[in-house]
Amino acid sequence: MYPSQPRFSRHILKALSLILLVVWSVAVLYPLIWTGLGALKDNSQFMLGKPWAFPRSPWLWSNFSNVWNQYHFGQYFINSIVVTAISSLLAILLSATTAYVLARFPFRGSQILYYFYLSAMMIPMILGLIPLFFLLNDLNLINKLSGLIIVYTAWALPFSIFVMVSFFKTLPKELEEAAYIDGAGYYRTFFDVMLPLARSGLISIGIMNALNTWNEYIMGMVFVNDPVKYTIPVGIAVMQAEMQYRTEWGPLFAGLLMSMLPVIIVYMLFQRHIVAGVTAGAVK
Amino acid sequence: MFHIAKRERFIITFLIPTFIFFSVFTLYPIVRGMHISLFDWSGSSEFMTYVGVQNFVDMLHDPIVWTAIKNDYSLVLGKVIGIMILATFFAVAITRFRLRGTGFFRMIFFMPNIISAVVIGVLWRFIYNPNIGFLNAILSLFTKQPIRTPWLGQEDTALWSILWPSIWAGVGFYFLLLMAAILSVPTSLYEAAEIDGATQSRQFWSITVPLIWEQMKISILHIVMTTLNGSFVMVWIMTEGGPDNSTQVMGSYLYQMGFRQYHMGYASAIGVLILFMSLITTLIFQRLLRRDEVQLS
C-alpha cells in the first residue's frame, strides 16, 4: 500500500522524463535530417532565412553527383575504403597474435608488456605527430595511402590488444588442449581453432578500428597533401574551407550526408558489436 | 627440451612483429617528440639548435599558451558537467521508470558518437552560421530584427559555441556506460526502498549514485582525458583557434606552431605539456573522486 502523494509525483516525474528523452532524441536527429534537407537545395533556398523549410521541388539530386565528381568525393571514398579496410585487417592480425600470447602464454615480463601497450592508450597521439611526419618523410611514405595505413594500424594496436587479451581469457582452454592432443601445433591451433572462436571479439575491434580510421582527420591532413590521396574527412574539411571563396552549400551538405551514411548504416547493422567494442575500452 | 624451444619460438614470432611495428610508429615518435622539444628547429634538418628548456621557459611568457590552457580546462569542466548531468539523467530515467522504447532511445542517443568530429564540426558551423544558420533563424522568429549573431566569430561566444556540439556528440557514450551500471544494481534494493517510502530523489542519492560511483568516476576520467588529448579537432574545424586565438586549445596551438609557422621545437614542447597536463589532471581527478567503496553484502 503506497501513499498516494509519491505515486502521483512519480507519474509526473515519469512524464517529464519521457518528454526530455524525446526532446534529446529530436536534438540529436534533427541536425542530421537538416543535413539531408540541405543536400537537396540550391543556394537561393539557403538564403531564404527558413533553414527548416523542405527543399523546393525539383529536388536537386545533382548536388550528389556534383560532389561525387567535381569535388572528387568518389576518389576520396575509394581512398578511405582502401585505408580503412587494410589498416583494420592489419590491426586485427597484429593485435590478435600478441593478445593471444599475452592471454595464454605467460612468460617473464608478459605483464610488463601488457601494461606497456595499455599505457599507450593514455598518451596523446598529437605529441607524436611532428616526429611521425618526419619519420614517414624519411621512409618516403608521405603523400601515400600506405603511409596512412601504417600509421592507422599502429594507432589502433593498444586498444585492440587490450580488448583481445580479455576476450581470449574468457575462452575455454579445453578446445586448445584437444587441438594439441590431436597433434595440431601452436600455429594451427591459433589460426584454425582460436581465431574462429574469437570471431565476435575480432568483429568488435575490427568495426571499432574501422570507424576510428574512417573518421580520422588530423593525421590524414598532415601526412597527405596530394588531393588525389585525400580521405573523406580531409576532403570535407578542404571543401568547407573553399566555401569562403565560392559558396556551394548544397554540394557540401550532400558531401556531409554521404560521409555519414556508410557509418550510420554500419552502425544500424552492427549496433551490438559497436556498443560492446566502444564500452570495452572505457571500462578499464 | 625440444618442446620448450618450439613454444618459445612461437611466442617470439607472435610478439615481435607487433612490437617492432608499435615501437617504430608509436613509441619512437613520442620519445622523439620529447627530444625535439629541447631544440629550436624549423623542420629543415640543417639547423637544429639545442636550446635546453628554453622552449618551456618561452611557453611561460606566451599569452596564447595560457589562453589555450584556460580554454582546455573550460572545455573539460563544461563537458564533465554537461555530459554527466545529461547522461546520468537519461540513464536513470530510462532504467528506473522502465519506459518503453529503450532500444530506440539507445540507438538514437549513441548516433553522434560514431560520426566523425570533422562532420560534426562542419555541420555545427552551419547551425551557427550568421546568415544561413539554423540557430539565428530560430531566434529571429521571436524578434523584430533578424538576428545576425556570428556565434563562432566573436570572442565571448566562440568557445561556448564549440562546447555545446562537444557535449551533444559525447552524451550517448556515457549514457550507455551508466545505463549498464544501473542495470547491474539489484532491483530488490529499489523495491525495499519503495516499501520504506523513499522518494525517487532519495533512491537516486542513496542507492543509485553510491552503487554506480565507480562507473561515474571512470566516465569523468574518460571525459577529462579525451578532452585534453583530442578536443582540438573540433576547435580546428570550427574556428582554427580564432577569432584572435581566443578559442585556441593546446592541441590546435601545437598544430599551428608546427605546421603553419614551422616552430617544430616549440610545438613539440607544447605536446610534452599536453602529455603532462593530461596525466596530472587525470591523477588529480582520480584523487578527488575517490570514495569509500560500497560493497553489497
TrEMBL record, chain A:
It is found in: Cell membrane. It is a multi-pass membrane protein. The chain crosses the membrane at residues 12-33, 76-102, 114-136, 148-168, 249-270. Keywords: Cell membrane, Membrane, Transmembrane, Transmembrane helix, Transport. Its main location: membrane. Gene3D superfamilies: MetI-like (1.10.3720.10). SUPFAM superfamilies: MetI-like (SSF161098). PANTHER family: ABC TRANSPORTER PERMEASE PROTEIN MG189-RELATED-RELATED, SN-GLYCEROL-3-PHOSPHATE TRANSPORT SYSTEM PERMEASE PROTEIN UGPE. This is N-acetylglucosamine transport system permease protein. It comes from Paenibacillus shirakamiensis.
TrEMBL record, chain B:
Residues 69-285 form the ABC transmembrane type-1 domain. It is a multi-pass membrane protein. It comes from Paenibacillus shirakamiensis. Gene3D superfamilies: MetI-like. The keyword Mitochondrion does not apply. The keyword Zinc-finger does not apply. Belongs to the binding-protein-dependent transport system permease family. This is N-acetylglucosamine transport system permease protein.
